[in-house]
């Protein structure tokens, strides 16, 4: 499976320059987000790598290749999921580089320092988005799954913007929860619960992807 | 030793096309030419062998193993060369091979390097810069480097110049010398198969027309030419196809020996090419 991930990395190499620019752009755009800045950058650029990885497969019609080689579908599907932490590591390295350069320049753009909680939440965000995307990608391929990708992202963005309007009155539990948020973020129990929920989501997504990919014809 | 490849009553249905109970087998150490017009079902059959499509009926065994249940084992021993390139165009062949080679337990770098050098393939240039012939040669180098016992080739010579085509055919002839490798070679360029095939399978509109040895084919069939008066009720049952003009007729007959006796030297009987056989079968000329 490592060689499938290596293939993804070899294909993504030419994207590194663009990724640096995106990280710089998002660092500037998300300055006002405070601690959320790093999470947003990791999830946005990390997910971009996921999408590009899927696009390369379609461009080269590589399903025919991999399904003609002695490679199980489990490995083909699994490698896409295992590429995610590798992509995130690349984004973090780029962010570290960009934030270091910015600090040397006297912080013309505010870049939050790297912290473990933000990194983990960034990883979670990419896994959650990819878990919703991959089953559709493995079922119908990149071109057709783009529509789902747009629905997914615009849906989430729209939901975020209309949600306050949908809730007529702020529930009583919101304020205490918001006050406790920094505490919750550092809370080990909360992290474990979040980890279990995300792991279950990724597991279900993987099984769905595997089943749908097995039904596909090339 | 049983057949290296065996298809039994293979069925696959799409909207507007049906592969209709195709059966044939390939013995070890031989080259089988798989011919038919475009859209006849050659690629569908090959995709079914490679498990790229799901079977609607029948079964396929490769090396005596069910190709579905033993997919990984079977694919360890199959080499494939397709009409289109499916390797990543953005990678060099050095990078591509580094990714692909570890999946084959019998991969031999010495053989691989030998073919790469022989074909003059640049290892550091991206695959997208390769010509069609170079891409085919790279596919062949990968197929041969893991000591495949069965080569599945889907229109490998399509779009290639005569020199590269000839080179490929020479290599295939070499490869089967030790009789440990068999080749299923799909093509509509029948002259290639005239040269190298031991067996020929013709498929037309999803149905098998015949699957037989090339020798038997040329013993059985003949191109017949003669006056129109010869086209009587006795001859017509032997005709696969016929073209008539004001001077006479030309057609393809089966049971050459019987036709020879029947016409008693009044007709000219010639050895057909595979193209003659394919054309008369697939054009469906009125008999």
Task: Give the topology, please.
The complex is a heterodimer of chains A (218) and B (287).
Chain A: H1 2-12, H2 16-29, H3 36-59, H4 62-66, H5 73-104, H6 116-140, H7 142-166, H8 174-185, H9 188-215
Helix pairs in contact in A: 1-5, 2-3, 2-5, 3-5, 3-6, 5-6, 5-9, 6-7, 6-9
Chain B: E1 5-14, E2 17-26, E3 31-35, H1 42-49, E4 57-62, E5 65-66, H2 71-76, E6 78-81, H3 93-100, H4 109-119, H5 132-145, E7 150-154, H6 162-175, E8 182-187, H7 190-196, E9 199-204, E10 207-213, H8 214-220, E11 222-226, E12 239-244, E13 249-253, H9 256-263, E14 268-270, H10 274-283
Parallel strand pairs in B: 3-8, 3-9, 6-7, 7-8
Antiparallel strand pairs in B: 1-2, 1-4, 4-5, 9-10, 11-13, 11-14, 12-13
Feature tags:
heterodimer, A: 218 residues, mainly alpha, 0% strand, globular, B: 287 residues, alpha/beta, Rossmann fold, six-stranded mixed β-sheet, four-stranded antiparallel β-sheet, 10 helices, 32% helix
Structure write-up:
The complex is a heterodimer of chains A (218) and B (287). By secondary structure, chain A is an all-alpha fold. Chain A has helices spanning 2-12, 16-29, 36-59, 62-66, 73-104, 116-140, 142-166, 174-185, 188-215. Chain A is 81% helix and 0% strand. Chain A is globular, with a radius of gyration of 19 Å. Chain B is 32% helix and 28% strand. In chain B, a hairpin with a 2-residue loop joins β9 and β10 (207-213). Chain B folds into two domains: 5-212, P-loop containing nucleotide triphosphate hydrolases (Rossmann fold, 3-Layer(aba) Sandwich); 221-283. Chain B has 287 residues and is α/β, with parallel strands linked by helices. Classes of the chains: A mainly alpha (218), B alpha/beta (287). At the A-B interface, α1 and α4 of A face α2 and α3 of B.
């Amino acid at each position: 499976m490592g060689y499938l991930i290596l293939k993804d990395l070899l294909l993504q190499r030419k994207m590194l320059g663009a990724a640096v620019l995106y990280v710089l752009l998002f660092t500037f755009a998300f300055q006002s987000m405070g601690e959320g800045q790093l999470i947003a950058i990791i999830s946005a650029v990390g997910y971009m790598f996921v999408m590009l990885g899927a696009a390369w497969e379609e461009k080269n019609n590589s399903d025919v290749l991999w399904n003609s080689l002695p490679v199980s579908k489990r490995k083909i599907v699994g490698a896409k999921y295992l590429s995610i932490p590798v992509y995130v590591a690349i984004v973090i390295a780029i962010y570290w580089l960009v934030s270091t350069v910015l600090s040397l320049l006297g912080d013309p753009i505010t870049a939050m320092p790297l912290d473990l909680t933000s990194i983990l939440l960034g990883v979670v965000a990419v896994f959650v988005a990819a878990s919703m995307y991959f089953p559709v990608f493995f079922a119908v391929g990149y071109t057709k799954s783009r529509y789902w990708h747009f629905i997914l992202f615009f849906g989430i963005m729209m939901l975020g913007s209309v949600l306050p309007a949908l809730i007529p009155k702020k529930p009583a539990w919101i304020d205490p929860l918001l006050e406790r948020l920094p505490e919750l973020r550092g809370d080990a129990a909360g992290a474990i619960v979040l980890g279990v929920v995300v792991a279950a989501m990724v597991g279900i997504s993987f099984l769905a992807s595997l089943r749908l990919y097995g039904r596909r014809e090339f | 030793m049983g057949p290296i490849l065996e298809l039994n009553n293979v069925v696959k249905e799409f909207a507007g096309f049906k592969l209709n109970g195709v059966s044939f087998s390939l013995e070890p150490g031989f080259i089988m030419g798989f011919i038919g017009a475009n859209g006849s079902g050659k690629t569908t059959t090959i995709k079914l062998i490679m498990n790229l499509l799901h079977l609607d009926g029948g079964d396929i065994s490769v090396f005596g193993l069910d190709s579905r249940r033993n997919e990984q084992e079977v694919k360890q021993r199959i080499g494939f060369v397709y009409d289109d390139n499916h390797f990543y165009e953005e990678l060099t062949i050095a990078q591509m091979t580094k990714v692909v080679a570890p999946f084959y337990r019998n991969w031999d770098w010495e053989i691989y390097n030998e073919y790469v050098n022989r074909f003059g393939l640049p290892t550091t240039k991206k695959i997208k810069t390769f010509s069609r012939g170079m891409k085919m040669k790279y596919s062949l180098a990968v197929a041969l480097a893991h000591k495949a016992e069965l080569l599945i080739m889907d229109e490998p010579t399509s779009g290639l110049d005569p020199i590269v085509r000839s080179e490929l055919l020479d290599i295939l002839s070499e490869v089967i010398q030790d009789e440990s490798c068999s080749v299923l070679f799909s093509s509509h360029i029948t002259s290639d198969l005239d040269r190298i095939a031991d067996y020929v399978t013709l498929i037309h509109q999803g149905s098998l027309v015949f699957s037989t040895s090339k020798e038997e084919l040329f013993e059985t069939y003949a191109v017949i030419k003669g006056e129109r008066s010869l086209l009587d009720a006795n001859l017509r049952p032997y005709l696969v196809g016929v073209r008539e003009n004001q001077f006479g007729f030309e057609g393809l007959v089966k049971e050459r020996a019987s036709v020879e006796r029947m016409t008693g030297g009044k007709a000219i009987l010639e050895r057909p090419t595979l193209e003659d056989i394919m054309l008369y079968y697939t054009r469906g000329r009125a008999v």
